[in-house]
Amino acid sequence: MENQFQPQLPSKRLSQSDEKTWAMLAHLSILANLVTGFLGPVAALIIYLVFKDRSRYVAYQSMQSFIFQLIWWVGGGVIVAIAWTVSIVLSAILIGLLCFPVACVLSFIPLGALVYGVIGAIECSQGKDFSYWLVGDWVRGTLEAN
Fold first, then answer.
1. 101 lies in a domain?
2. Cα dist. 51→63, 75, 85, 112 in Å?
3. Entry pTM
4. Residue 1 falls within a domain, yes or no?
5. Which of 13, 29, 78, 97 has the most crowded Cβ, counting Cβ within 10 A?
């Protein structure tokens, strides 16, 4: 006789609606960087770890968001900091003043990454298979190898 009070285990697979939502949130995790400066990649990684076995779509979208943020937000931020440091140090001589326009242009790298992440979130909320330029193919190959 079956125990009617035994709790039902939730379905292992995510619904299509949940997949869209979690993929969108993985891409929107880049917005956490505006407040914290660095927790966006952590949020994307947590989404990947929680849902990697329940949805390949969410795993792919969250992992590429994680890699994208590491490269363009964290890496871009380091490059911008170096560019501004060099410009300020060299501003004592004329060369530093010539470096300021370069540092200004490089300052837009994290902003561009933010916009690109939001575009990815919008695409995923519509159920499309979004792929970041260069990062998406690498992540797809890495996940398929596992």
1. yes
2. 11, 26, 40, 27
3. 0.72
4. no
5. 29
- Run of H or E residues at 109: helix 108-125
In single-letter form, the type of residue at position 124 comes to C
- In the numeric block, which tokens belong to residue 134? 């260069």
Q: How many domains does the chain have?
A: 1
C-alpha–C-alpha distance, residues 136 and 134, integer Å: 6
In tens digits, what is the pLDDT along the chain, a chain of 146 residues? Answer: 455 555 554 558 888 889 999 999 999 999 988 888 788 999 999 999 999 999 999 999 999 999 999 988 888 888 888 988 888 877 777 676 777 888 888 888 888 888 989 999 999 999 888 888 888 888 888 888 76
Dist CA 40 CA 111 (whole Å): 14
Domain containing 120 equals 16-128
DSSP 76-106: HHHHHHHHHHHHHHHTTSHHHHHHHHHHHHH
- How far apart are alpha carbons 20 and 28 in whole angstroms? 12
Radius of gyration of the chain (CA): 20
